[in-house]
Structures are given as C-alpha cells and as structure tokens.
Fold:
Amino acid sequence: MSFRWLSRPNASSGMGVADHGKNAFMELQRKKVHRYVIFKVDEKKREILVEKTGGPAESYDDFTAALPENDCRYAVYDFDFVTSENCQKSKIFFIAWSPSTAGVRSKMLYATSKDRFRRELDGIHYEIQATDPTEMDLEVLRERAN
Structure:
C-alpha cells in the first residue's frame, strides 16, 4: 500500500501524497473502518506508505504498541470519548512520532515532510508532536479533546 507523488513533490523532502493514503484516512474519518492509520516514509521510493491500519475494535494501547521504539512515523488516530454532558464524540488526532532514539536523518526527513502531508489530510482536529510516549498518553488526548 503506497501512494506516489501525484502533485509536485515537496522541495525539501521530495515526498508527495497520492490517493491511497488519502483513501485510508477517509475510511477512518467517514466510514470508521479504521481506529488508526500509521504512515511510513520510504526515502528510496520517495513516497509515503500506509504501514499499518487498526480495526475499529483496537485500543489505544494497540496503536501505541504498533509505533516503532526507534524510528519516526506519522499516524492518525480516531479518538472516541464521552463529554461531561454525556454526549458521544469523536476527534481525529494527527500524531508526528519522532522518538529521541531515532536517527538524525530519519527525524529530519519526517520533519521536512510533515507539513505538506498533514495539509493533505483534511479533517484533522488536533496535532501532537511526540518524542516520548508520555507526550501522547491517552490522558493527553482526553485533555486536548475536551
């Protein structure tokens, strides 16, 4: 599952976004087919791949366990919660995962590609930049969503 550059590539990273990645995001956003989508930059192919999707029944722990300990990733997560007024709500988070243990080259590649990639995903409610699991803890999502 990959998406090659259909429009002009980002000048600094050369990464582009094609329909498949947008479709995976739309399936998460509108059809609730996925709880999360994790994206990986393939530098050699100069494209962003859909690395993994999680089904609607998967938990936040399943999502965080799917992120690599020592490499960067982009992810979108569909966070369901109940408001203080007892209303069921859903907010979509864009997470730029860049652990401190990742290599400098990987961090730079993801940093230079992020803004363009993020703009292609219309309908994101919140963005989190995390270098450590505590920065994207479930409680952080709850605080941001309310």
Summary: Strands lie at 2-3, 36-42, 47-54, 73-82, 88-97, 126-130.
